[in-house]
Hints:
Blueprint: H1 2-26, H2 44-59, E1 65-70, H3 76-89, E2 97-102, H4 108-117, E3 122-126, H5 140-152, H6 161-172, E4 185-188, E5 194-195, H7 203-209, E6 214-216, E7 219-221, H8 230-240, H9 251-254, E8 265-267, E9 272-275, H10 276-279, H11 282-293, H12 296-299, H13 304-315, E10 321-323, E11 329-331, E12 334-336, H14 341-346, H15 365-371
Parallel strand pairs: 1-2, 1-4, 2-3, 6-10
Antiparallel strand pairs: 4-9, 5-11, 7-8, 11-12
Helix pairs in contact: 3-4, 6-13, 8-11
Bound molecules: guanosine-5'-diphosphate (GDP) and manganese (II) ion.
Amino acid sequence: xxxxxxxxxxxxxxxxxxxxxxxxxxxxxxxxxxxxxxxxxxxxxxxxxxxxxxxxxxxxxxxxxxxxxxxxxxxxxxxxxxxxxxxxxxxxxxxxxxxxxxxxxxxxxxxxxxxxxxxxxxxxxxxxxxxxxxxxxxxxxxxxxxxxxxxxxxxxxxxxxxxxxxxxxxxxxxxxxxxxxxxxxxxxxxxxxxxxxxxxxxxxxxxxxxxxxxxxxxxxxxxxxxxxxxxxxxxxxxxxxxxxxxxxxxxxxxxxxxxxxxxxxxxxxxxxxxxxxxxxxxxxxxxxxxxxxxxxxxxxxxxxxxxxxxxxxxxxxxxxxxxxxxxxxxxxxxxxxxxxxxxxxxxxxxxxxxxxxxxxxxxxxxxxxxxxxxxxxxxxx
Length: 381
Ligand code: GDP
Ligand code: MN
């Protein structure tokens, strides 16, 4: 009796075992073995292959676009920070190119380090002398006096000659540097900026697919003392070139009285994603050349921010200007941070919502929302 029970037990074990292996073979299930477990990348070569696969997937969808930075060699370490933040939050998945421009030759250290950090191709350009010097119609003594006077009045950058060349270059020339001519869109990045949220979708692609020409994340009022005659110059241009003024433009954003005076609102141009083809258009070049003739880049201290903003607000349709509220950004001293908690969590943001500048008194973004009848996003007070 005891013997029989023992054998029966073995028989049951054997049957169960056989059935198990039969079903395993029928259903293609496999017993785990070392080779079938996913394993972390072991070698540099494996890792590199993964990276290439990732960028390859996106590369086919890329737009013809580049990052662009105007910088001095001495800006290297502040620039390294900016590149790191742009790569970590966005470009590591897209590998867009990066063009660096300078009025002097970039040194080897600048090129070596920035090339190591940028995931796309890097290009380094010297600015031609005639784009960074006085045009012949400028009275240089008068310009020097203006600088002294503005310095005495403690106007920011009022005494600086190089800052004026920089503003004029950003207003009228960077987009026609030979290195920029093959691209359709640009994203301007300055030293020491920060991006606080992941950027998952490609803003370049968004711009192209939606016929956007200019974009911003922060807007504010310009210092009157830097642009006393800018609006007169703009009005002269508008009278001479009514054909360049767009219907359904954003004039309401920059003027509270139908174009009579400038309210000093402008998009903060240290961040810009925009269309190079628009900046290279006859419309924009006529505008820049008309302003340039009036000399305010040197006799006053016109910034490229009001110059670009006024162009966008008068010569584009207002729906061609994009406010990117999901791109969280810092350039000293202002922050743009989404107030909406869900956005901040989804995009792994690291900014403090209390720091958001958008609805403060000195910001013009409220006005932008009014002019466009936009509803403020969730959680925005
Ligand atoms: P701010 O943001 O108005 O305070 O001005 P920045 O000092 O940041 O200058 C604006 C941009 O122009 C930055 O990208 C600077 O690196 C760049 N920049 C300013 N001055 C010069 C200059 O003299 N030469 C070059 N190559 N770049 C400059
Ligand atoms: Mn700056």
